[in-house]
């Protein structure tokens, strides 16, 4: 399995017991959706390695307490600390309407109702308080907040997102 065929699920953040259990910080709005997984891919030595789950349970709402098969000691768990976890894109439920996964819209064109063609989404910056579309317009980077009020329509077939941004926002970058 290649990383490009997967989505980031979370990261192992700490050990939970001396029997090899770990706590995973999930990167999701719906942690309960991942409480009953059978396996995950763990990034280990730059490879995605499948790990099978013996048991798991939600722990303090956004953490998942997991006991992996063949991880039976504190030393085994230590070896996995800070490892990132992935799942195949195929397990994601299909979203419709104006809902989308970040990875899904990379390469989509942004069209503003007033401005017209803005550019192509190169990535999503979600390290700020408000997630941003990072858009390339002929070498110029334009940032547009991913605000529900700005997003008019997502056209998956045409690979376009129609937005209605506040007057002057795009002009700030040009």
Structure description:
By secondary structure, the protein is mainly beta. It has 2 domains: 3-90, Elongation Factor Tu (Ef-tu), domain 3, CATH 2.40.30; 102-173, PRC-barrel domain (SH3 type barrels). It has 1 helix and 12 strands. The strands form 2 sheets. Strands 1-2-5-4-3-6 form a 6-stranded antiparallel β-barrel. Strands 10-9-8-7-12-11 form a 6-stranded mixed β-sheet, with no helix packed on it.
Order of strands, main sheet, comes to 1-2-5-4-3-6
Shape: elongated
CATH architecture of the largest domain: Beta Barrel
CATH structural class of the largest domain: Mainly Beta
Number of helical elements = 1
Distance between the termini: 41 Å
Q: If you average the pLDDT, what whole number results?
A: 91
Question: Strand count, sense and closure of the main sheet?
Answer: 6 strands, antiparallel, barrel
Count of DSSP E strands? 12
- Strand percentage lies at over 45%
How many domains would you count in the coordinates?
Answer: 2
Low-confidence regions? none
CATH superfamily of the largest domain: RimM
Taking all Cα atoms into account, the compactness measure Rg is 20 Å
Structural class: mainly beta
Order of helices and strands: EEEEEHEEEEEEE
Question: Short summary of the structure?
Answer:
The chain has 174 residues and is mainly beta. The chain is built from one helix and twelve strands. The radius of gyration is 20 Å and the shape is elongated.
